[in-house]
Design brief:
Elements: H1 2-6, E1 10-15, E2 18-23, E3 26-31, H2 39-49
Antiparallel strand pairs: 1-2, 2-3
InterPro entries: HicA_mRNA_interferase, HicA_sf
Keywords: Endonuclease, Hydrolase, Nuclease, RNA-binding, Stress response, Toxin-antitoxin system
Family: Belongs to the HicA mRNA interferase family.
Length: about 50
């Protein structure tokens, strides 16, 4: 979440343990189940965000 916020993404909603971040036309859903995300999920989120 810190990386998304640092790159201009804004948290627009949260349903249960999933937060939705948006910037321009890109949307990224962040699961908030544990402290650290597995590398595969983190990599997928970076691709979705274009980072």
């Amino acid at each position: 979440m810190k990386l998304l916020k640092a790159n201009g993404f804004k948290k627009i909603s949260q349903t249960g343990s999933h937060a939705k971040f948006v910037k321009d036309d890109k949307t990224v859903i962040v699961p908030m189940h544990a402290r650290e995300l597995p590398k595969g999920i983190e990599h997928s989120m970076r691709k979705q965000a274009g980072l």
